[in-house]
Amino acid sequence: MNQAMSDDGGHAAHEAIAGRLRNLRRKRGWSLDRTAAATGVSKAMLGQIERGESSPTLATLWKIATGFGLSISSLIAPSERIPGTDIGRQGALPVWSDGQLQIKTLFPFDAALGFEWFELTLPPAATHLSEAHESGVLEHVLVLAGTLSLLIDDRWVALSTGDTARFAGDAAHGYRNTAEMPAVFHNLIHYAPGTHHDG
């Protein structure tokens, strides 16, 4: 799904985000101006996302989720899955892509546990830079296939298949794949207690 913008699944995912953003605004009684102030995303961009005229980047979605006090998974893949015992079938797991980074939601955010768990695929020669998330966020990475470099504390650290890393997500960080094959890795994002909800 490297070209999610052009396939039906990618279009459906972005339509779902558009609807989710509209519903969140209505539920809270927020205007586009109020939403722009809370998220740091321009009113024009928010309107384009809601109308399905723009495919937001992951960085933009993080800003929107943070502004609403949501986890990223509750914005990109709201779930009907029940907390506790949970079975997710391979073909039924939600997948989202910004055209470069593909994100499969393995376990959506669970407020009782304080984390969400993703499988990410970064294509060859791709780099994804992330702004600092809110205070207290920790990221845990396990490389499943290929090699991955992480930008942590202003330096790139190389990881190979089977390597792990944990780092503060509340500082700028990044992911880079310099290999000729996709890098596939798990990313578990842990939020500070009481800071996020499902919307």
From TrEMBL:
Domain HTH cro/C1-type residue range list: 21-75
UniProt keyword annotation of DNA-binding present: yes
InterPro entries: Cro/C1-type_HTH, Cupin_2, Lambda_DNA-bd_dom_sf, RmlC-like_jellyroll, RmlC_Cupin_sf, TransReg_Diox_bact_type
Pfam families: Cupin_2 (PF07883), HTH_3 (PF01381)
Gene3D superfamilies attached to this UniProt entry: Jelly Rolls, lambda repressor-like DNA-binding domains
GO cellular component terms attached to this protein's record: cytosol
Identification of the protein by name: HTH cro/C1-type domain-containing protein
Annotated source species: Acidihalobacter prosperus
